[in-house]
Design brief:
Elements: H1 4-35, H2 39-42, H3 53-72, H4 88-108, H5 111-115, E1 117-121, E2 131-135, H6 136-160, H7 171-175, H8 177-184
Helix pairs in contact: 1-4, 1-6, 3-4, 3-6
Length: about 180
């Protein structure tokens, strides 16, 4: 019988795999929805932590890329706080490619690997922390939760700009997506 903490870690590690797949699914739904909207609205300035839907997407992309780099122990150059000068379609494609890469990485890990510590230096903007040593699944959960947070901001920005009917991207919708998708057909 597993020790309760070990069993909880394995269950949490399994959840990390589900959540990585959920993140990819939710980002695909958002990008497909945004592709149907006028470019000038998606790029229009609005009051938020990032001043447009485009910049919020760039932040999601950059953050997933940065955290995946830390997990892989490779150095990535952060675009934090800067705009990306590619086209909006390139932003959409980059968000999806990064989410696919993150999901592929997480799916490739064993339960034991997901429970192993991920050791990395934290970004300079968090001077109160130095080196972090957390189970890999917790770092993954943080990153993907961060993307969920910003997808919520996109909904708010979009509604303030007059865009309606954002896609349902709650985790529960992902869990029962087969029922939802089959009833929509």
């Amino acid at each position: 019988m597993l020790h309760a903490t070990t069993e909880m870690q394995i269950n949490s590690a399994s959840l990390a795999k589900d959540y990585a797949a959920f993140n990819l699914w939710a980002n695909k739904r958002f990008i497909n929805w945004l592709r149907s909207k006028p470019v000038n609205i998606v790029e229009r300035n609005a009051v938020s932590s990032f001043s447009s839907i485009r910049l919020t997407l760039v932040h999601i992309w950059d953050t997933e890329r940065s955290w995946l780099g830390r997990l892989l122990q490779i150095e990535t150059e952060s675009n934090y706080g800067k705009d990306y000068d590619g086209t909006l379609e390139e932003v959409f494609d980059s968000v999806l490619q990064q989410s696919e890469a993150f999901n592929a990485y997480v799916q490739s890990l064993s339960e034991a690997s997901l429970c192993e510590p991920a050791k990395f230096m934290v970004p300079v903007r968090w001077p109160e922390w130095d080196e972090v040593n957390l189970p890999r699944f917790q770092v993954i959960q943080h990153c993907l939760n961060h993307s969920t947070y910003h997808r919520g901001q996109i909904v708010t920005i979009a509604r303030n700009l007059g865009l309606t009917n954002p896609p349902m991207t709650d985790y529960i919708a992902f869990l029962i997506k087969d029922k939802i998708e089959s009833s929509a057909q």
